[in-house]
Amino acid sequence: MNLKRVLYAFSFAMLFTNAVDAQDTKSDREKYNFNYGWKLNVGDAPEASKPVFDDQKWKAVNLPFAWNQAEAFKLDISHLSTGIAWYRKTFQLPKEAVNKKIFIEFEGVRQMGEVYVNGQFVGLHENGAMAFGIDISNVVKPFPQENVIAVKTDNDWKYREKSSNSPYQWNDKNFNANYGGLPKNVFLHIKSKVYQTLPLYSFLKTTGTYVYASDFNISNNKATVNVVSQVRNEENKPVKVQLKVSLKDMDGKEVASFLGDAISLVPNETKELKAAKALQNLNFWSWGYGYLYTVTSELVVDNQSVDKVAIKTGFRKAEFKNGMVYLNDRVIMMHGYAQRTSNEWPSIGMSAPAWLSDYSNSLMVKSNGNLVRWMHITPWKQDVESCDRVGLIQAMPAGDAEKDVTGRRWEQRTELMRDAIIYNRNNPSIMFYECGNESISEEHMSEMKAIRDKYDPFGGRAIGSREMLDSKVAEYGGEMLYINKSANIPMWATEYSRDEGLRKYWDEFTPPYHKEGTGGTTHSNVNGSKVADASAYNHNQDAHAIESVERWYDYWEARPGTGERVNSGGVNIIFSDSNTHYRGQENYRRSGEVDPMRIPKDGFYAHQVIWDGWVDTEKPAAHIIGHWNYEKGVTKDITVVSTADAVELFVNGKSLGKGVQSKRFLYTFKNVAFQEGSIKAIGYDKGGKTICEDEIKTAGKAVGLKLTSITRPGGTLANANDLALVEVEVVDDKGNRCPTAMDMIDFEVEGKGTFVGGIAQGPDNYIGSKNLPVECGVNRIFVRATDVAGEIKVKATAKNLKADVLTIKTVQTDLQKLSTVLPSDNLPSYVEKGPTPTTSSFKKTRNTIKIAEAKTAANQADAAKSFDDNELSEWSNGNGSPKIEYTLERKATISQVVLKLSGWRSKKYPLKISVDGKKVFEGITPTSLGYVTLDVTPTKGNKVQIELMGTSKDSNDINLVEITGKVDEAGLKKTKAKMPQLPIVEVEFYEPIR
């Protein structure tokens, strides 16, 4: 059995093997976990805002808890329950809270939340995406009196802002799974009357504390740490205040402390306090190296400490120039995932405990992804902080559906971006702010950039939008499905693969024998329209993994090091199967490289191979797609994904020769006959040296079940909300997983836990069922801890298989209604990849020869548009001759011509290319996702002529028809010209490196 598959069953445990313990972030009991002790009622209860209301029959819940979360993956996105739900909680303030400021912080409410404290209305929040805070100082009662907080929520898809009657663009049935109520954390802050404000602009109009580094000297581990804290005086007298800052490393050791200037504040005055110090021996945050410091800003009044704010942050340098992204002075090519912001799981929706967010997000890093682009709306703070810990770069949107808007809907987007930047600007993993899921106007882009410049001028974050290919304002861009190159701002694809594949389906030769393309042609979209033929999107695991590699090739071919105009990568949609719009027979999106329970599909391992490195491959690897447990007589093509220069395949030690290489990373071996035993792939470099290998062994007859737990580091918390993942495998007598097993498993849970469930193909997707099958020999369920510490006993049984029993110990925690244990306390960082390497991330592969001028007898005025580094401009011949000649800046031996021709995905052009009058190429261009590289006869010269030799031909080699049925024309423009057209968007000429 493939060792990788065994290891990944324990991937989360491995994640923390080399981790460094994080420092506790409690701020002297000024911030409390407010998640415990709530009551829930689904439906309207008009009197529930009153303190005397009887809620004894309401359901007891601990937050985060969406009232409809049990429907996750059971119902499709458009059928998730909506309506009004009320949450209530009684609580006492601590004795020491007398004459203090009291703030409540909600990480989010969906969609609307009316907040009442002791019967008084204190605030209305409506955008459904962002955190907000409310000052409740004047309505709470001091100890020992009880207080009642009540929150009315409404998650109607058609909810409209009360003041304007405007809908929210991002409350969209296609993209934003509707988990209603209070699906995120809630905190209570107790502060003195002279205090550092909270980073919660809506309601409070405050910006909190801003921590950033400047004056980087990466090679010598030096930088200046800056702290800017907004301070307010609500005493009735002037005060003299000063900021004292301390830094602790991840071992809890104080590495620096320093003071800022002292200033005076009159009553009700708000000012910013600043402190800065140049530091040495810093560890810089990096990809897969979530090194974080605890920066504590202490407010000193008359030599007395009155307020502390502890911020966990990291320091890193980022630049966006020359068409590339630089992290800590090293070029990094973006490769990762466009993930739904809900990041949901079966039966619990998005309301996962913090450690589970780490587990999920760390798997993106384990697959060698370095970027997650959260889609359409601002991510949950828990996920933002999780990405800090696991070393995963983030692109943070504000709110959008799929187009620019005007009026109040645009104002809503700018307000959300403002609030999101203020709230998240101390999180080092955020390197991109996304202003829209499609291009926006230059005026709107300027507005967004001004917001970034006002609230996060020093954070090292680029602001841009999907597309924005010719923007003079945006700092990055990139289309959705196509390749873009630039010598200026980085261009990376915001989602480059839409294909889907259920984990259950290995290939066409393994039960249940999924034929390529099956499914997805008889369903309706969430908006009621009929789904176009989506068979090209519906794959088994073999085909899905191969498609992912083929798509990546186009980006890799244009990577940094290949010229002055380069591509900066892209993100695959999506990482985990999502409860959002879909094209298959299941009612959820199956585009993930892992399934909804985060069990890897073959595409996970394929990405692990092709993405191993910042740009160029750093650790050669190979992965055999599929398994080796076929029925007798099966003969099939075997595909190996590898970064080696050649791959040889062995069956039971006998060589089948070298594979046929395609798309650089794919090696195909035709008609391989199954023989019980082993199949092994060995990869070689150009000199024939073995540099990597992969092997799969045939598993024996299934004899039993094996249970494994994946739990919170430090133990599952007995808080009635923490979860444990329990993996069940069907195994042979040696403990190897049987990859074709589909046995039905019966689960029993006893002790201090309750059964939650998992997912599988079948009725209601088996959501909540205690009986569900393994798929490809494995599946997972959740169990939830009770609020009493002890043991959870999980038993799994199946017909004709030996049962297994697993025991999970739970640990007691602080369950007070004002708990001092925060959800992310003591979660370790992932640092396995180590600090940013000091070496170059790529080797230059060729030299660009610049173009001095272009001449043509057809549309000469547009000739320069064919090499202007603007992918929204082009030259075409119109009614003139389809011929153009370029004069190069110097004579050079031209070996490659790279072209972007309009209609790149559906048109093939017959071309002849000459250098100084000598024909160096004659042939038909292939289709692509943007650019084609033509190898020409190496010829020295400085004049290159490109001529169309006939009419372009249509091709359907690349099928990217959207679910609406719309076919993107890939830049083709309508023309009435009678001549065949040669539309050149960009042309580039290269010579080999001497």
Q: What is the CATH topology classification name of the largest domain?
A: TIM Barrel
User: Helical segment tally?
Assistant: 8
Uncertain spans: 1-27
Task: Give the amount of beta strand, in percent.
Answer: 35-45%
Portion in helices: under 10%
Say which CATH homologous superfamily of the largest domain is assigned. Answer: Glycosidases
State the domain count: 6
The overall average pLDDT, rounded, is 93
Name of the CATH class of the largest domain: Alpha Beta
The chain-level structural class is mainly beta
Query: How many strands, what sense, and barrel or not for the largest sheet?
Result: 7 strands, antiparallel
Distance between the termini: 46 Å
Radius of gyration: 29 Å
**How many E-type strands?**
58
Q: What's the CATH architecture of the largest domain?
A: Alpha-Beta Barrel
Using the alpha-carbon principal axes, give the shape. Answer: globular
